[in-house]
Amino acid sequence: MYTAEMIGRTLPVRVDQGELSFELPNGQGSFRGRLQAGGALHGHWFPPSSLSGKYASPVKLKPDGPNRWSGQVVPFEDVFTLYLLAQKRPDGSLGVFLRNPERDFGAWLGVDRLVRDGRDGNIVKLIGKRRGQKEEGELASGTYDADNEVITLNFPFRGGSYDFRRDDEQSDFYPRGKNPGRYVYHPPLARDDGWPTGTLEEANIDRAAIEKFIQKLIDIPMESVDTPEIHGILIARHGKLVLEEYFHGEHRDKLHETRSAAKSVTATLVGAAMQAGAPLKLSTPVYEIMNGGAFPADLEPRKRAMTLEHLLTMSSGYFCDDTNPDAPGNEDAMLDQSGEPDYYRYTLKVPMAWAPGEKSIYCSINPNLALGVVSRATGESPLDTFDRLLGAPMKIDRYGWPLDPAGHPYGGGGVQLLPRDFMKLGQLMLNGGTWQGRRILSRDYVTRASSHLYHLRGIYYGYLWWGIDFPYKNRTVHAFFAGGAGGQSVMVIPELDLIIATYAGNYSSKGTINTSHNLPPRYILPAVREPGDDKSAPVIPREDYVTPYGPSPESGPVSGSIPKPSASRL
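Request: output the structure for the sequence above.
Response:
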């Protein structure tokens, strides 16, 4: 019989078919794990639900004597920060805006001004127009303590009341303080995380141009809720990390939200499972594998024809457009309902709107169901599959993975990763599916995943990876990327052997596109040199460049066959 010792408690451990598990009392968290071949105990910690939902974090316990293991649990940290900037307007009113780096709650709330009421002006209210509302109204209220200069505002659906105090000039509200000094480049820190590091000079990237670019980000005035809030810029070239800069208090050891860019994590896990020999193919029928190996009785022909590949290309045919609130498969409709906690079962019941493969429509339920297909094929949790096939070889041992109410890891987005770790997926794809000489994805899978298979939202789409073209010198270079709301992106440009990662906090505001689509072609690509370039030539940023979307807003297959890129692209 095993027992677990944690936070001063001794708890009984259950053993079920090789799985060890225990729970803290009063729903304070639980652990599940299995013994590994080398004697370690690997598993996951499941903390109680937080403001952001339910998340799982990996745990590795090392042998510490006979039948004893020890280690540290690093749970997903749920932080919710609010900054309130107030400035007097010419008409005497107090204009304000609210910044929230974790969820961009302020942009969604639409705060416009602060008014004082009460006998001594000790009652304060935030007035504005919430997204989707037609008229202004009171968005939050609270009190003002003049003696201590503290504003207390209540946000009942975001953790309750918050105390706002005057911040100093080093506040993380600013990129690097209110009055930042001159930026000087330093190479990234070498760590035992799988990333070789180097310098901009070694990567043939103009240092002076990058220093001006980073200085520009540091000097961004925080003037409105839509001002781009850049959290991190990382660059790797020729297999080495050569730039790593963070802002607004973010750092290399802090997990960062990836939003829908995590859909590419799902695609990578699907490819890794197939490469590792799981009984899984792109042509695997979805309803057959999700039903235990046989199609459900009286299943309609369109659902019978749906394959794993259709889920990866958003062409399942489900009535599930995430931009259509009336679609039963809309992500928000699924997240907001409580009748079906199992999101796999919920999705399988969504009605069809088209034949599979006919149209590509952006639906987060597709990649989530693809993660369910992986689970059925491997017979284990996708978290265990990720740790075994991607986490261990690529040294990705910290994350916060969102769960559905039934406890399944969510494959439609929202995984929190360390910035350096998330960038590794781009290097894996750039390498044609290998990481430090180890084959993780097949080269054919990488080629197909990064190809132009469909038009989706006006640009190209492969297997949960986007495709776009950028101007470079006197030509165009192709890029494919993992992209998520707020400015999250891991951009791969094979022709230049280059990866650019951006992280930001504009999840609900207008600063998103500027970050992930426009910063690379405006400021980074002009600084990238090729052999034979004149190093004395000045680097001229493309300040006015705006990334165009693809040739057609209509979604659908690009062609009847999958184009194969030239060998130089991988």
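The chain is about 20% helix and 25% strand.
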